Amino acid sequence: MKLTRLRISNFQSFGPVPTPIDFEAMTFLLGPNGAGKTVVLQALARLFGFDPSLRRVRRSDFHISPATLAAGNAGTLNLWIEAQFEFPELLDANGQHATIPGHFSHMQLDSADGVPRVRFRLTAILDEDGDIEEKMHYVIHVDANDEPVNPMVVPKHDRNSIQVHYLPARRDPTDHISYTASSLLGRTLRAANWHAERATVAGLTQGISAALASNAGVQGIGEQMAGHWLKLHKGSYYASPSVSFEHNEIDNLLRHLTIGFTPGHEASMVDFSRLSDGQQSLLYVSLVLSIQGIGRRVLAGQLDAFDIDRLRPAVFTLMAMEEPENSLSPHYLGRVIKALTDFAGHHDAQAVVATHAPSLLRRVPPESIRYLRLDAARCTTVKTIVMPAKTDEAHKFVREAVQAFPELYFSRLVILGEGDSEEIVLPRLFRAMGLADDDTSIVIAPLGGRHVNHFWRLLSGLQIPYVTLLDLDVGRHQAGWGRIRYAAKQILALWQSTPNLTLEAIEALPAWNGPDQILSSSQGAKLLSWLEKQGVFFSSPLDLDFSMIQAFPGAYGVSQAELVAADDPTVKSVLGKSGLGPDQYSTDQQSYFSAYHARFKLGSKPAAHLEALAKLDDAALTAGMPPPIARLIALVEKKLADLPE
Predict the structure, then answer these.
(1) pLDDT, tens digit, 9 for 90 and up, residues 154-212
(2) What's the predicted TM-score (pTM) here?
(3) Domains delineated in the chain
(4) How do residues 222-254 score in pLDDT, each as one tens digit?
(5) What is the DSSP secondary-structure string of 496-558?
């Protein structure tokens, strides 16, 4: 039994248009703050929360649009949350699974060879008097709009057979380490079989009570109390008070239960309340996993120490964990995720994790991520990561790159660059223009190059705005016109229909090694301008390193003696042995080849840029900034003005 889809309408940040969320055995929710990650976990808890208080729909759960809020009269509001479960274990002909019997009569098949499914829908209505009416139904039949027809009420027992354990960002185990019916530990102990121990416990507690009552201090208190009581109370009943320790039932003893750890620093046993926040968080997770494991063994008939009717173990358990990185160091975080992954590997268990931790996402396959973001109407949207086909050589590259730069999931806007130079230089240039990357939630990621089209598709699918800075690489192999042709083709493939751009026009562009020189071509200038309007900029004529050393020769320590025509080996090192040579460069540009070669081919690119940028203030950087970079920053500033925070 697995939760395969959740649909939400008008619940908190989810608007009136039903929003589907598909789930894996282990699913990760991520996105910027306020995007709705916690809302998804709370929606699951409203359906099947272990804690009854989490099942109650609140007035604040109803979505109210800004327009309705401005009008001041919301009227009657409604919301619904629908969960679809599938039962792949039915494909196991020899298996016996506790998940099947209770749901069998409500299963539906979409096709003869499909997997049976069950749909639950929670509907709530808030009337004008502030009263909330809730209903939980099976969705058996639907109309043409996929709306339920003649739904069936879900019995309480059926609803309780599915449990969602919502582990909030602050995980305090105190509420679940007590002998109450609503606590994890208390509910389990109440269902334990104590028949063999009752007589033994009764005898031991009677001895303890007698020993305590024989204490002189206790006897003195009893005598004083009896004397004063007789003066005030004259009835024949309740005439003789005494200090008693006669409550020797097991239930009374279990009310004092706790969890202790040995060894301790100051005592032989340390109470769990002495643990750090991170350790208490680990204890909370351990407790939930332990109780669920006991329930699974009881259902399978492997453990008879509990009364199954009193324990009422869930046939399906989902752990909804919020920000596991809270209070946990990275190596503990890895252990928690591994424990949850093992837990979700069973047919009757699943896990959903909402996170902000880049260190966690480096361990996560992108296919298991659901990306949440607010749209222009400030309603939550949910997207799935779109990866290249596994047969495509780009699949491994994109997968590893996304895991290496998970910060892009939390950004308002992504700038795709070619490599390390962009990652160092661009943030400093943005700060010079008054756009600090942290203040604006911009992520600059060196994910460009030959697979940039896959990142365009990925970010477009997630609806994350992006701008790209590529190298024009004039004179290098298949560069210049080749770079423009590649970018134009990928834009056409991504957007299908693009004004003023056809595949025929792209194929008619000059060859990269033809006589038409892109730097002096009016057609090339028009295409570069058009590409910039699409958010694709080029460091011209070569790359960002060359543009910066030309713009700020003094900061990069370029002496006049270095500005001479480069020899043939240097030119081949800069442009490559298969390149066209330096003919498309002006004499002034060619004079920088030797300095470029020394700093960026023989030396360290990061070191050269860091040393040069340290010598330049904001005014100097703004005044001498390469024109394509200045235009890129202007476009980013314009895009940010239209994006929600």
Answers:
(1) 999 999 999 999 988 877 777 767 656 667 888 888 888 888 888 888 888 888 888 88
(2) 0.83
(3) 2-177+309-361 (3.40.50), 185-257 (no CATH), 388-545+617-641 (no CATH)
(4) 888 888 888 888 888 888 887 776 665 777 777
(5) S-BTTB-HHHHHTSPPTTSS--GGG-HHHHHHHHHHHHTTEEEESSS-HHHHHHHH-TTTTT-
